[in-house]
């Protein structure tokens, strides 16, 4: 019997945004500008799917291809407008920090 590991199809990143913004298009533009500054025009067109924005606009969850995740994480690390709170290939794991606060 052989075990075959499934390769993740998506990678999820939870970001903290500063200043707060509830406009999804402005968030996407900010992330693309960050990618352009870091990697040039070639990687500024990386597909970013914004899944969730909290009511205050201070946190956002994005979905990206696993191959692009390292570039996005590097660009966000160099950014002054956003920072990584958590990242994983398993979406529900991004909520784990909230579970401890509710108890």
Biggest sheet: strands, sense, closure?
A: 4 strands, antiparallel
* Approximate strand percentage: 15-25%
What is the CA-atom radius of gyration, in angstroms? 15 Å
In spatial order, strands of the major sheet run 2-3-1-4
Topology pattern, helix = H, strand = E? EHEEHEH
Distance between the termini: 42 Å
CATH class: Alpha Beta
Tally of contiguous helical segments: 3
> Percent helix among the residues?
25-40%
Structural class of the secondary elements?
Answer: alpha+beta
Average of per-residue pLDDT values:
88
Number of separate structural domains: 1
Q: What this model shows, in words?
A:
The chain has 103 residues and is an alpha+beta fold. The chain has one domain (11-90): Alpha-Beta Plaits (2-Layer Sandwich). The protein has three helices and four strands. The chain starts with 10 loop residues before the first strand and ends with a helix. Residues 99-103 have low confidence and may be disordered. This is Ribonucleases P/MRP subunit Pop8-like domain-containing protein.
């Amino acid at each position: 019997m052989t075990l075959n590991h499934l390769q993740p199809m998506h990678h999820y990143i939870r970001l903290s945004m500063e200043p707060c913004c509830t406009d999804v298009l402005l968030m996407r533009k900010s992330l693309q500008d960050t990618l352009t500054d870091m990697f040039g025009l070639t990687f500024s067109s990386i597909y970013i799917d914004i899944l969730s924005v909290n009511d205050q606009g201070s946190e956002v969850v994005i979905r990206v291809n696993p191959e692009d995740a390292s570039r996005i994480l590097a660009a966000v690390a160099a950014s002054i407008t956003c920072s990584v709170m958590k990242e994983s290939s398993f979406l529900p794991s991004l909520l784990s920090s909230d579970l401890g606060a509710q108890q």
